[in-house]
Specification:
311 residues; alpha+beta; Muramoyl-pentapeptide Carboxypeptidase, domain 2; 2 domains; 4-stranded antiparallel β-sheet; binds zinc ion
């Protein structure tokens, strides 16, 4: 082979290698443009933000998010423990209008619907959720809803006649009562199941005495009382005849132990903006032991729990 030929082959060789390298780079780039890193980068997210999004969201959600305009609050929101993807727009809008609120609160408020006025955006609750059905100022029971497994308490446990709870809640209460009794405390059922008509009478009476606005502060409207579920119980003690129940040892006992029997304090202190109710140290709701433990350990309201885990 002469020198000329060698030169030609070398040049051809180099061109081929160059073409292969270019080809590889082009393919690599095309592949890169198919990645979420590239796509999110293009609409304004930085590397760290894309890592967060990919960690927290499913592919389907990432695809949907690509149609959203960049917003620096999105990555902050998806890191929130109770973030629900299909509420993203509501979170962003509410946060924009309420910049004084923290994002944790924004998520809780939107999840519990409490950005709406009480008794607006209401709907019939899903009773098939059974002991996890949600009754609050947005979710109601119809007049025809009557639990069919009510058990009546004897006077050992309750003030007055005809105090009753649904079977599971009744059994759990007796178990709790016995345990408290062993520790030297006497729990007394002060109010329990209430029918739609009974609640209606209470509300209508308040309403005629004080007007609707004040009645709404004192009592739930018919259909909106948790007592109609047969899963809620107002507890008192002999001590609370002269004191707030909150100041009684029975209350302290319940605070430490109620969750072990499936009961939760339904309207905790400082959570009115999520539950719609002022603090009630006496009102307990049966939700079953697994859920009561979660709610107790994580210090959330049932309304928040329902939005994230039940609905
Ligand atoms: Zn109550």
């Amino acid at each position: 082979m002469n020198k000329k030929k060698i030169l030609i082959f070398s040049i051809i060789g180099m061109v081929v290698v160059a073409l292969i390298i270019t080809g590889i780079l082009v393919i690599k780039h095309i592949n890169y443009t198919k990645t979420y890193e590239y796509k999110f980068n293009k609409i304004g997210y930085n590397k760290e933000e894309v890592v967060v999004l990919k960690n927290e969201l499913k592919d389907k959600q990432l695809d949907e998010l690509l149609n959203h305009k960049y917003d620096k609050n999105i990555t902050r929101l998806v890191k929130e423990k109770y973030f629900i993807f299909n509420k993203l727009d509501d979170y962003l809008k509410y946060y924009k209008d309420n910049k004084d609120k923290g994002l944790t609160d924004v998520v809780a408020i939107i999840n519990t619907n409490t950005n709406n006025d009480f008794y607006t955006n209401t709907k019939e609750t899903d009773v098939s959720k059974n002991e996890l059905m949600l009754i609050n100022k947005y979710n109601y029971l119809t007049a025809s809803y009557n639990p069919d497994d009510l058990e009546v308490f004897t006077n050992v446990y309750a003030y007055g006649e005809n105090q009753s709870l649904r079977k599971d809640a009744y059994d759990a209460f007796i178990e709790m009562w016995n345990s408290a009794n062993k520790d030297g405390y006497k729990l007394i059922v002060n109010s329990s199941y209430r029918s739609y008509d009974e609640q209606k009478k209470i509300y209508d009476d308040y309403s005629s005495w004080y007007g609707e606005e004040d009645a709404d502060k004192k009592a739930a409207r018919a259909g909106y009382s948790e007592h109609q579920t047969g899963l809620a119980v107002d507890i008192q003690s002999y001590c609370s005849q002269n004191k707030d129940f909150e100041e009684c040892e029975e209350f302290t006992w319940l605070t430490n132990n109620a969750y072990k029997y499936g009961f939760i304090l339904r309207y905790p202190k400082d959570k009115e903006y999520l539950t719609g109710y002022k603090y009630e140290s006496w009102h307990y709701r049966y939700v079953g032991k697994k859920v009561s433990k979660y709610i107790h350990d994580n210090n959330i309201t049932f309304d928040e729990y329902y939005a994230y885990f039940v609905k």
